Amino acid sequence: MYIKVCYDFLAHLKIIKNASEHTIRNYSIDLNDFKDFWENEILSLKDPEEKPFKICYQTSYEKRVSEKDHLLDLKNCSRLTLRKYLAFLKEKNASSRTIARRLSALRSLFKYASVKKHIEASPAEEMETPKIEKKIPCTLSYDEILKLFNQPDTRTLLGFRDRVIMELFYSSGLRVSELVSLNREDFDYKNLLLKLKGKGKKERIVPITKNAADWILAYLNHSERYEEVDGHLKENDPEAIFLNRLGTRLTPRSVDRNFDRYLMMSSLAGKVTPHTIRHTIATHWLENGMDLKTIQALLGHSCLTTTTIYTHVSIDLKKAVYDEAHPRA
């Protein structure tokens, strides 16, 4: 019953709530983790020779029925079961952030199950969520940005593409998912604007710098984009802006993998990801006088609280606020 309700819940998220594939994938991970705990630690159903059944949001329940599902009766899942699960996660040294996310996923699932009358009440209600320590985002200096941006070999089409991506990240603070979903029709060179599809498929229009726009235009008009040369195929997706080696739309995983490679080449310390550049440009905007409301709109944050984290990042901003507020002698 648990697995069947999970599939219905994930379908609800996709169809009714219009959740992104990234969100649904994360829910799948969380719900699978609890399923494994329930089967192995509570019901002792673990079979060392059996491959664990996994809830996959891309596959229908009917095609992957688990014989054990009738044993995972939601009505038998009590608050005590959930407490044992949270204790199990702590014993496994899971972070507070991971534990909070797992509990949030279960809380949403049980709320859905309650509305659908599968259970009378949710056992996750009023369970205390672990306190999450706010992490200060990692940012780069302007010199480090230049060092990273100089890594792609712009003499090749794929290297040129990666430099364009970096320029665009620093120009407008895009998320990876927003970047790879960009189509030609979303790029307005004349007015220096981009139309983005953000979280929850919400659309917003953001400005880009003339420099970034010139890089995009040069990439779209690059002669090798329409040829099979240097280990890549010609354009096979006329709508997408950013293409992979096969000439089809670039994926988020490919972008992350490329950034890992350029990080090693640049010898920069720490973990630099595309999101690091998003944090960096937001901090630089703030240091140069842009107000939080504008930054919130540019980044597509639904809550201003998310944007205020950048006030904790900027040492220059803290010093400026201190100097402004300190009494003059």
From TrEMBL:
GO terms for cellular component: cytoplasm. One of its GO terms (molecular function) is DNA binding. Keywords: Cell cycle, Cell division, Chromosome partition, Cytoplasm, DNA integration, DNA recombination, DNA-binding. It comes from the Bacteria. It is found in: Cytoplasm. GO terms for biological process: cell division; chromosome segregation; DNA transposition. Residues 1-114 form the Core-binding (CB) domain. Residues 135-323 form the Tyr recombinase domain. The keyword ATP-binding does not apply. The active site is at 175, 199, 275, 278, 301, 310 (o-(3'-phospho-dna)-tyrosine intermediate). The keyword Iron does not apply. CDD domains: INT_XerDC_C (cd00798). Forms a cyclic heterotetrameric complex composed of two molecules of XerC and two molecules of XerD. Site-specific tyrosine recombinase, which acts by catalyzing the cutting and rejoining of the recombining DNA molecules. The XerC-XerD complex is essential to convert dimers of the bacterial chromosome into monomers to permit their segregation at cell division. It also contributes to the segregational stability of plasmids. Belongs to the 'phage' integrase family. XerC subfamily. This is Tyrosine recombinase XerC. It comes from Candidatus Criblamydia sequanensis CRIB-18. The gene is xerC.
